[in-house]
Amino acid sequence: MNLGFVESKTYDEIAIGDTATTEHVFTEDDAMAFASISGFRAVLNTEEQIERAGGIPPTGPNMWCASLISGLFSMNIPGPGCTLTNVCLAFHTRIRVGDRLFVKVLVASKEEATRTIIFDCEAHNAAGERIFSGNAHLLAPEKKLHWTTLPLPELIVKNPYRHYLGMIARANAKPAVKTAVAWPCDEVSLGGAYQAFKDHLIEPILVGDESIIRKVAQGLKIDLGSIPIVDASDSRTSAIKAVELARKGEAQMLMKGSLHTDELMGAVVSRDGGMRIGRRISHVFALDVPSYHKPLFVTDAAVNIQPDLETKIDILQNAIDMMIALEIEKPKVAILSAVESVNPAIPSTLDAAALCKMADRGQINGAIVDGPLAFDNAISSDAARIKKIDSQVSGDVDLLMVPNLDAGNIIFKELQYLAGALAAGVVVGAKVPIILTSRADGELARMASCALGVLIAKP
Questions:
Q1: CA–CA separation, 27 vs 349, rounded Å?
Q2: For residues 266 and 288, what is the distance between their CA atoms, to the nearest angstrom?
Q3: Which of 149, 178, 199 is the last residue of a domain?
Q4: pLDDT tens, 13-47?
Q5: Would you tell me the crossing angle of helices 443-456 and 187-198 to the nearest 10 degrees?
Q6: Same domain, 381 and 320
Q7: What per-residue confidence (pLDDT) applies to 53?
Q8: Out of 18, 92, 324, 426, which residue is the most buried by the measure of CB atoms under 10 Å away?
Q9: Cα–Cα distance between 357 and 62 in angstroms, integer?
Q10: Same domain, residue pair 254 and 206
Q11: How many Å apart are CA 7 and CA 1, to the nearest integer?
Q12: Does residue 239 contact residue 259 with C-beta atoms inside 8 Å?
């Protein structure tokens, strides 16, 4: 850590005409952070605002720009220990996301009687347009202060709108998908399916005990109207009937209700009446991680417990096909292990090497695949550079393929609970996409899971 020092100036050391300047690019994260603190919500959905304004970035809060003068006062003139007593600013032009802003303060006069220093303050953008102008009154510290300058804290804006809302908007642009909802017999599962219906993502077919479903709907005060209900006496029967609808082509997507996952997946993989298409069925999580620059996918953290190499081939190709359907061209895939070198004592490194060679020779298609890579080398190009790893994937990975369910479950839950990630997911490799929502999922995660399914479902 490089520590510096900043020293304040007393009243007598400050001269008329002294200046301090700074510049800053106003980013979307700046807007989000200000919205979180102040409640200024006008900047939240920037992608939508840009689209509505014909490509023009949204305006931002001018008070954010004005706050930059505080940094000049506290770190330049007068420096640490000063007291701001009055500010009067006039605003002339709105700032926009992406603007480069130039801020200047200048000592205009000094009042001996009150030991007050009056500053002229101004800001303009790169086009020379004035953002604000005015003045500020400050009291300098009576004694010189010498402070250590620690690195500024790194601000990570948890913005679940960044990637998920774009995906939901794309799904909304497509026709609603007929979806068999297996056993929607509690408020969470029925409410989630109904919300997806209201958001024009799905056309639900509710499969379960009709009396229970209508009672739950009454408790939620929702009108099921013309939504069809296929009566099933118990959860196992509902799973079988829901799968049958998908197998016959009467539903293009399957959604888990309040039954146990094993019941639904048992019906899905049944050799007699299931939805197998020749590959092993697998699961893909789509994570919106605030500190990562794009959606991050993880497979398989929910279905295959300890896959062998043959199963991993299907898991990888399933995920690649899904990402291509999501219009991610040539996704970058990291095959994870504990280390980045092939080690016969660690079987997952041997599998990773084999998968990469298969991708090189066209046995696995549609992606740039590298491995074995440790998690740090996959996510961080700096970590890869330090370890002298030359990889097209490091630092820009789209998909993390984990060695087993244990590792995948740990990774996605760590990203959820420590990094603030939002997780959506879908089962792939079957006749239709399968939405496996958790009771702990919030509304946005549920809608994102539905959107994933809609985007990859076949008409």
A1: 40
A2: 30
A3: 149
A4: 999 999 999 998 888 778 778 877 777 665 555 55
A5: 60
A6: yes
A7: 45
A8: 426
A9: 54
A10: yes
A11: 20
A12: yes
Judging by DSSP bridges, how do beta strands 332-336 and 399-401 pair with one another?
parallel
Say what the alpha-carbon torsion angle 393, 398, 400, 405 is, to the nearest 10 degrees.
-170
Q: Which residues of 47-65 are buried (b: 16+ CB within 10 A; e: fewer)?
A: eebeeeeeeebbbbbbebb
Give the dihedral sign, CA 235/241/247/250.
negative
The count of other CB atoms within 10 Å of the CB of residue 388 is 7
Residue 360 lies in a domain: yes
CA 27 to chain centre: 17
Question: What CA–CA distances, in Å, run from 380 to 189, 339, 373?
Answer: 38, 14, 11
- pLDDT digits over 126-179, tens only? 999 999 999 999 999 888 888 777 676 677 666 655 677 778 888 888 999 999
* CA 45/CA 95 separation, integer angstroms: 16
Q: Which of 236, 232, 320 is nearest to 282 (CA)?
A: 320
Domain residue limits at 84: 4-149
Residue 199 and residue 286 in one domain: no
Whether omega for the bond prior to residue 300 falls within 30 degrees of 0, making it cis, is yes
Residues whose CB falls within 8 Å of the CB of residue 345, separated by 6 or more in sequence, listed in order: none
Give pTM, 2 decimals: 0.75
> What total of structural domains would you count in the chain?
3
Q: What contacts 357, CB < 8 A, 6 or more positions away?
A: none
Element holding 423 (H helix, E strand): strand 422-428
- Residue 34 and residue 121 in one domain: yes
Helix (H) or strand (E) holding 136: strand 130-139
Question: Beta partners for 426?
Answer: 284
CA distance 128 to 272: 72
Asked if 406 contacts 298 with a C-beta cutoff of 8 angstroms, the reply is no
In whole angstroms, give the CA distance from residue 319 to residue 91. 51
396: left (phi over 0), alpha (psi -120 to 50) or beta: alpha
Within 10 Å of residue 430's Cβ, how many Cβ atoms? 22
